[in-house]
Amino acid sequence: MTSMMIVYAVLCFISVSVAKEFNLDFTEKGKSFTEKILIDKGNDLMEVDVPAHVGVMESKYLFDYKMRLSVLKHPGLKKCYVQDLPDDEPTIEEMEAGLENTNYVFPTDKYMVQTRNLLPIEEIEPSTLSTSIRDFCGAFQILKVIESDEEGMEKLALEEGRALINGIYKRGHMSSKIVRVCEKRDTEAELKKCMGYPDMLEINCKTLSSKCCIWEAKCKRKPELDFNWGCEYKHAWSDIHCCEWKCLKK
Q: Please, are residues 23 and 37 in contact by the beta-carbon 8 Å criterion?
């Protein structure tokens, strides 16, 4: 019994010790800030905590490599935005190698800037997600997002609006979990006004004012040669969009 307890204690210790914390220092407009990164290899998770800095809100990111999902937790909007893990997101090993290669200081002289335009398309049932994601998001509403340009967003929103007009006509009320619309306009009233006149439905997609970003350093690792290569340093913005429907019929 004693030996079994010792083995169990060792296994527990190994499981807990997998999670490691790192700091990535960065400079924005002459001021210094620190991004905190938690890597949990045992559970295939990486969490990134980006502090508020120079007009940019605090944000948190979770990368669940088992579910292949990326999650942006936006405290300002009190929402979690979930998308399929982009192909260019760093793996845990690449992020570790990148941090080591930069000596935990983001290089300000050689990096690229990326903007991801994200459009919420539907609410996600929390039970379909991992425990890690549910715990990470807490009480925040969880929304699925897709990455798209403005033209693509407007096309999606227009198709959805016309489908909803048809649904209102058949059922007498709007039946959809779609959350593409901004929250200032009476969506159902606008759609009802265009019943029978779907071509008079107008779409206006825009960026929400609260922007978030993440600083990433990733490198390929060559352990057998004891060096890193193919390094990329990226300042990635996440712009959350919403779309409004307006009926032009008088």
A: yes
